[in-house]
Each structure stands twice: as structure tokens, then as C-alpha cells.
Amino acid sequence: MSDPVLLPQPQKLSYHPGEHLLTGNKLIAISDPEYLFSAQRLRAALQKIGLYWEIVVVNTALSADQVGVYLMQFDYGGKFAKTPWYELSIVPSHIVITGDERPEAVWYGVCTLIQLIEQFGRRLPCLNIEDYPDFQRRGVMLDISRDKVPTMDSLYALIDMLAGWKINEIQLYTEHTFAYRAHPVVWENASPLTAEEIMQLDQFCRARYIDLVPNQNSFGHMHRWLMHDKYRPLAEVPEGLHWASLLTPRPFTISPAVAGSISLIAGLYEELLPHFTSKYFNVGCDETFDLGQGRSQEMVKALGKGRVYLNFLKQIYTLVKKHGRTMLFWGDIIKNHPELIPELPLDVIPLEWGYEASHPFDLEGEKFAQAGLKYYVCPGTSSWLSLIGRTENALGNLRNAAENGKKHGAWGYLITDWGDFGHLQPLPVSYLGFAYGAALAWSVETNLGIDLPAALDAYAFRDSSRVMGRLAYDLGNAYLLSDDLPHVNGSHMVRALFNRLEDIQTKAWASGMKEPAPINPAKVRAAIWEVDRLMARLENASPADARVLDEYRVAVGMWKHGCKRMLLAAGDTSITLESMAAELRRLISDYSVCWLSRSRSGNLGDSLARLMRLFAEYE
Questions:
Q1: How many whole angstroms separate alpha carbon 33 and alpha carbon 39?
Q2: Are 218 and 260 in contact (CB under 8 A)?
Q3: Which helix (H) or strand (E) holds 42?
Q4: Contact yes or no for 49/120 (Cβ under 8 A)
Q5: Cross-strand bridge partners of residue 142
Q6: How far apart are alpha carbons 385 and 3 in whole angstroms?
Q7: pLDDT digits (tens, 9 = 90+) for 186-209
Q8: CA-to-CA dists, residue 445 to 6, 12, 111, angstroms
Q9: Is residue 87 within 8 Å of 113, Cβ to Cβ?
Q10: 71, 242, 356, 501: which sits with the fewest CB atoms below 10 Å from its CB?
Q11: Confidence of residue 247 (pLDDT cuts 50, 70, 90)
Q12: Angular region, 434: left φ>0, alpha ψ -120 to 50, beta rest
């Protein structure tokens, strides 16, 4: 019998002689009704292999030969106070899952047993697993503001998948996509999540021992609010900033120099937070790029930018405490002012984010750890602005965060998935980052070398042909073939979709490069050839969700369109503008279909507008 592929791989696994044969007419015996949902999930897995076992609470009338699986709480004497601990024992006669006093411990054991049943069917290897997480908080944050808001079915399916990987925190990054009753002008075209939908998601998460943490950016990234006349007076720079990522100049940061700013934020929290049961709240506050460039200019001159930022952050902290929550916030601004970190309240939780494999999680995390603060490491999936992924970077980034987060005792590990420039990438492209991140968040040491393609096939794509996992992995490395330059926060061919043809050749698109980077046509063509070669495998793929096939076809088509734009910019005359226009029309049509298969229609127009601009160059 082959070694199991588990996601995540457990901390300790040992084998015993023999095998356990699952048969009919057995019971799932639970020591407490709290374990009912866990038992029901196990029963559902058994039903898929033709078995139906009833669920009962352990009692003296039961004989040992009646019980197929015990789900039990065990008193470990406080030995594992910091993290939930479970043990799974499979012997020829029976199966026992014991967990500590936290009910999620048994749930985690059930998740592991379900994966074994899915892999081996009725004949299970006899083994013993002792398991616990390296990080107490193991989360995924999905961007629902730029521009995709998933349907409820999509969110339920994603959360359910992540729960099986022992994720215990979900955040939905929000700028304007909650339906605030007092602010309809902000979200009226965005198909936002409603208050009732949030409560439904919260309930769904709690059943799976996941904490749905509210998330509302509250300082920077407020352009979806400040672009409207009603809120523009609160902007740091009301006339707006000129950035390529925005179709028109828009104000970006809410100004701490305007009294109404904190009042607006207070009102948002009053309406938003009662719909969540979580005791935590991510207030954002990252990338306040224009702070000090407008209305707070005099304050910044007098106090310094760091002090102005911290003072406003503390006002936000007061609001959060009023609601009985613990504040999470992005740490990118405050870490640039290390002298101010000791002034942070000791119960705030900084989120140390960085999305390149080389990000200094060691150095930056140490700053927060030395200040006595709980903090998270926050790597990313590397799927945004890449369309088909950046596998090498994603793995390096996720691994770097895990190893250095564990080194400095980080409390949480949050895998982020962003939607920069219109959220072009389909959701399945992010499965690779979610899966590897979830594995490392549980156990760094045992998952560094996990067979990721096999795990993706088994638990993400559920591809019986075992094609999609390796295909997704390999496609995600195709960006490396286009040139020898660093691809930072995206890939060059995707950035070519947003730069004018005349600028692609001359712009220094890699971060930190001072001189324009010439395009190497031979390497770009080699990248296209390799992607075409890899995509031939798609004909043999059998993912459980057939939408994945079309999503990858469209994503690859758009990726290749960006490559062709690079070739056009380099003077390639074999590509005509007419053919590019025709291809773009097909891609936009297919892209819209894929979008609507998982996400709501709001803001699809915003995403398409970025692509529609290309027609001006083709026609």
C-alpha cells in the first residue's frame, strides 16, 4: 500500500502491520453532541464508498464490535495548551480519533480520516497520527473588491474546500462591497455582499471551525468611496492621483486632517460588525501613499508622517475596542517607523505582508516579535497580475513566510489572494498557493517537500486523471521563460495588457530597475511555445468541476495575448493589429462567461474596461 498523500501532511505518522477493512452495519460513536457535524462529514465520505453508518453518543449499551469509529475527547492534562491536538489510530479492529478539550481537534482528525478514505477506499492502512498546528491562526484572505464578488455558492464551495485543509480563518477583503444601508452610492454597481449573506457565511464557517473575520479598509484604498462627491471632501488629495491601475484619477487615502473622516469610519463599523461573531477585525490601513501630500501636509510637517499615521490608527483602535474586537492591521506603514512600534497598543495584531520569494519576513517579523506583539505573516498566492500563476515565486514566498514566521513565533499565517487591475485570474489558478500555504501553516517541517501536484489533484481539482495538478504547477512557471528579468508582483506579459504598445518596450516594468528593459522576442516566443505544449495535456484532464477547463483556456489565451503585445512592441511584423482585435473580442466574450460562472455581475464592466482600452490601438 502506497504512502498517503495528505493535505496537510501531519506532524507525526507511523505505520502498524495490517490493514483495516471498512464494512457495513457500523456506528460512528461520539463522546459529545458537539462532534455531530464532524461525524456527519465522516458519514458523507463513507456514503461515497457505499457505506452508511449511523451516529450515536457513546453509551454503556454499545458493544465494541458495533462501533466502526470513535470520536472522543481526551484529557491530555493541559499538555497542549497552545494548539489543538488530535490523535488518529487505525488498527485492524477499529478506528479512534481523540482530541483535546477544543472540539476543533476532533474535526481536524476527521478531515485527515476523510482524506484517507478518499484515497484508499474501504481498505485503510493501519497507522497512528499525532498532529497539531504550527500556527494558531491559519487563514485565507480573498479580495472581493477589485473587482470580483463571488456568488454565495462559490464562497461556500471555497470555504468547504479550505476547511478540509484545516484552515481556520477566512477574510474577505472589502473596500466597498458590503451593502451599507447608509451608503448605496458606493456599492450600487458592485453586487455587494448583504448583511444577511454575511450572517449566512458566518454560520457556515462556524460549523467548520472557521472564524470569518470582518475586513474593511479604513485609511488607504478608500478611492471607491472618495471618488464620489459625497465623500470627496474627506480625501487627502481630492483631485486624485494619476496611476495606471486606475482608469481615471481618483483620490486614494482618507485624510486624518478632516474631522469627518473618523466619523465615517465609526459609522461603517457600527453597521458592519454586528453581523460577524468573530472577536477580530482587520481594519486594513495599508499603502497610505498620498498621506501628507494634501490636507494633512501641515500636520505631517509638524509631527512627521509616521506620527500622523499612528495617531489616526489609534483613533481607529479606539473604535474597534468599543465594539469588543481585537484589531488587525497591515503593518507596511508602521514598520517603516520602527521607533513608533513600541507605542502600539499591545493587543493589536500587525499583519506583515510581502509577496516576493525574497521578502524579508525574518527582519520585519522580528520587529513585531521584539515589541511583544502577536503578529501574522502574510504571503500570497502570486496569482494576481499573472493570469496563470507564478509557481516558483509563490512557493518561495509561502515557504519564506512559514519558516520565518515559525522562527519568530508568529501567531498567524494568512494566505492572501488579490485582484489587482480587475481580478483577471480565475479562482482555480489560486488553488496552488492556497494548498501549499495551508500545508505549511499546519506543519512547516513535514510539508516543505509535499507532492503538491498530487495534493492538488486529490483535494483541489479532484482530477481522477491526475493531470490538472501538474499542469497548473508547470503553467505557473512559464513566465520564467520570457526573459531573464525579475517579474515583481506580476508577470511581464500580463502587465503588457495594461501598458500602451509604445510604452511596453521603453518602460522599466520590473521593480527596482532604473533603465528600460529590452524585450527578447526569441524568449517570448519560447514561452508561448511552452504554454501551447503544456496546454495539450488539458484534453486529458478530468477535474470534478468542468469549468476549470474553460477558465484555464481563457486565462492562457489572455496570457498569450500579452506575449503578442510584447512582440508587437519589439517590432514583430508577423502579428497584425486586425488579428489582435479579433482575438481580443473572443477573449473578452469568453472571459465574461467564465467570470459569471463563479462571480456576480457587478464590477465586471470595470474589469472589462481595462481590456477594452486595447481596441484603440488595434482599430
A1: 10
A2: no
A3: helix 36-47
A4: no
A5: 172, 417
A6: 37
A7: 999 999 999 999 999 999 999 999
A8: 14, 11, 20
A9: no
A10: 242
A11: low
A12: alpha
Domains and CATH numbers, the chain: 12-131 (3.30.379.10), 137-217+258-284+332-450 (3.20.20.80), 469-618 (no CATH)
Is 0.90 surpassed by the pTM of this model? yes
Centre a 10 Å sphere on the Cβ of residue 289 and count the other Cβ atoms it contains.
Answer: 16
Nearest 5°: phi and psi at 395? -65, -40
Cell, residue 257 = 486632517
Asked if 353 contacts 389 with a C-beta cutoff of 8 angstroms, the reply is no
Residue-wise DSSP of 315-371? HHHHHHHHTT-EEEEE-TTGGGSGGGGGGS-TT-EEEEE--STT--HHHHHHHHHHT
Is residue 510 scored above 80 in pLDDT? no
How sure is the predictor about 1, in pLDDT bands with cuts at 50, 70 and 90?
Answer: low
Residue position matching grid coordinates 501628507? 292
Q: What is the dihedral of CA 182, 183, 189, 195, to 10 degrees?
A: -50
Query: DSSP code of 215?
Result: B
pLDDT digits (tens, 9 = 90+) for 532-567: 999 999 999 999 999 999 999 999 999 999 999 999
What's the whole-number mean pLDDT along residues 18-26? Answer: 95
What 3-state DSSP class applies to 173?
strand
Q: How many CB atoms lie within 10 A of CB 515?
A: 7
At residue 361, the 3 state secondary structure works out as helix
What is the C-alpha to C-alpha distance for residues 58 and 230, in angstroms, rounded to an integer? 61
Could you write out the DSSP letters of every residue in 375-433? -EEE-B-S-TTTSS--HHHHHHHHHHHHHHHHHTT-SEEEEEE--HHHH-S-GGGGHHH
3-state SS class at 506? coil
Reading the block at residue 367, the C-alpha cell is 520587529
534-571 burial, b at 16+ Cβ within 10 Å, e below that, comes to bbeebeebbbeeeebbebbebbbbbbbbbbbbbbbbee
Please tell me the distance from the alpha carbon of residue 33 to that of residue 469, in angstroms, as a whole number: 38
Total number of residues shown for the chain: 619
Indicate the average pLDDT of the chain.
95
Instruction: State how far the Cα of 302 lies from the Cα of 307, in Å rounded to an integer.
Output: 10
